[in-house]
Design a protein that fits this description.
Structural class: alpha/beta
Largest sheet: 8 strands, mixed
Number of helices: 8
Strand order of the largest sheet: 5-4-3-6-9-11-10-12
Shape: globular
Helix content: 25-40%
Strand content: 25-35%
Number of strands: 12
């Protein structure tokens, strides 16, 4: 579900202050723990909101890539209007092409990836296209992350729970180990909708695990969700 998203930092700039973004992006950006310095990569940046959240949470230099040229242009425009424009750059390139020239370059990778593997391709270009992936997607995605990360690097992404088992299996095969996990539910009593994961290139023992409910039974936002996202946006629809 899309929410009216307003960066608190951008209230003085009406050109950027409100963006339509998905709950997945908000959750991932708020939950992720980027390093304070170094280099961060946002894979499949879209309008650039997760990259902007990483910029707000750190002093790192952030590269945002997307294969969809109009999205890259929108992200670059948003970056230029932000307080962190000098640390943000959007590039129109495929993940495979980018990976071939950036081995062991990044301290942190974040991605809200395409996950409709084996689904029907949408008949029109647009936002749905960004969420489609072919059979090769997961192999390319995990392999690329393992190649792009430094030995001490970490990666965070959000997926549907039905992809978790395959994601964990393929990650271990590539030398990535889960260190954090959040199970996401729309509200109590409903089925799990997403899982947010953080992986590291080094195994650190048992992974931290938590459960996050976005809304209460009466549809109001939970205090936990408000606390998680409070640094980024105002709740406009309460």
């Amino acid at each position: 579900m899309n929410q009216a998203f307003r960066f608190k930092q951008f209230q003085v700039n009406d050109n950027l202050s409100t963006m339509k973004v998905g709950t997945d992006a908000v959750l991932l950006g708020a939950w992720a723990t980027p390093p304070t310095e170094g280099r961060i990569l946002d894979i499949g940046t879209g309008c650039g909101v997760i990259a902007l959240m990483m910029a707000q949470k750190s002093n790192a230099h952030i590269t945002a890539i997307d294969i969809h040229e109009p999205s890259v242009q929108q992200a670059q425009d948003n970056f230029g209007l932000s307080p962190w424009s000098e640390r943000l750059n959007a590039i129109n390139i495929s993940l495979e092409d980018f990976t071939s020239t950036h081995k062991n370059c990044f301290d942190f990778i974040v991605s809200n990836p395409p996950y409709f593997i084996n689904s029907l391709k949408p008949c029109k270009d647009g936002l749905l296209l960004a969420k489609h992936a072919d059979d090769r997607f997961m192999d390319v995605f995990i392999s690329s992350i393992a190649t792009l990360l430094k030995n001490t690097g970490k990666a965070a992404f959000i997926i549907p729970p039905n992809l978790l088992e395959a994601m964990l299996r393929k990650s271990v095969d590539k030398g990535l180990f889960m260190v954090r996990k959040a199970n996401i539910f729309s509200k109590p009593g409903t089925a799990q909708t997403r899982v947010v994961l953080e992986f590291a290139m080094q195994q650190t023992g048992s992974a931290e695990e938590e459960t996050i409910f976005i809304r209460n039974a009466n549809h109001s936002y939970t205090e936990a969700y408000k606390a998680l996202t409070n640094d980024f946006y105002l709740f406009l629809n309460e």
